[in-house]
Write a structure and sequence with these properties.
The structure holds 2 protein chains of 2 kinds.
Chain A: E1 10-14, E2 19-24, E3 32-38, E4 45-51, E5 56-58, E6 62-67, E7 72-77, E8 86-93, E9 102-103, E10 107-112
Parallel strand pairs in A: 1-10
Antiparallel strand pairs in A: 2-7, 3-4, 3-8, 5-6, 6-7, 8-9, 8-10
Chain B: E1 4-6, E2 10-13, E3 19-25, E4 31-38, E5 42-49, E6 56-57, E7 64-70, E8 73-78, E9 87-94, E10 103-104, E11 108-112
Parallel strand pairs in B: 2-11
Antiparallel strand pairs in B: 1-3, 3-8, 4-5, 4-9, 5-6, 7-8, 9-10, 9-11
Classes of the chains: A mainly beta, B mainly beta.
Amino acid sequence: GESVGLHLPTLSVQEGDNSIINCAYSNSASDYFIWYKQESGKGPQFIIDIRSNMDKRQGQRVTVLLNKTVKHLSLQIAATQPGDSAVYFCAYAGGTSYGKLTFGQGTILTVHP
Amino acid sequence: DVKVTQSSRYLVKRTGEKVFLECVQDMDHENMFWYRQDPGLGLRLIYFSYDVKMKEKGDIPEGYSVSREKKERFSLILESASTNQTSMYLCASKESGSVYEQYFGPGTRLTVT
């Protein structure tokens, strides 16, 4: 039967603050990790990705950190803006065929002006 | 830019009806995916297709089927809609091989009454 839905983790920050969104993954064979942003009424959009041979990757205002020892991934957003308000999903792949992604449950980020 | 379109943004159907959700991508991607998204549960994979006329079950295929007659089009079929299939349905596509980034459509919010 259907699982009971869970409340998503939430993060509220002030405009200009830095935000850190965390994600734990379970599959130690995962070799690719990706962060998506989903705004209200839209499909998820790619933000940044990282492969398992790296522990840090930077983009424009975003940084992804990967700790394979504890199977933890984080997304850091610098100088958070109201337009960053969205649900953020981590996803990972590897050890499976056809590049299937496994998604986390998501984190709601709310940025207050 | 990759464009993934879905035939409807909102759909209301009655219990027992057969429902078709259509997805079209314009980037000649080999792989296509159907997910459902429910609060607190993230994205769960229903079915995916790695090539025309090829399909694989995802994590929650029960009550669904798919069709991929042309490379650009991937259809999700609810053979006999039930209220527990009320959800947001997201289609995605990606290149084949080791590229993992998936491009998502805007989603179809299906309500079964």
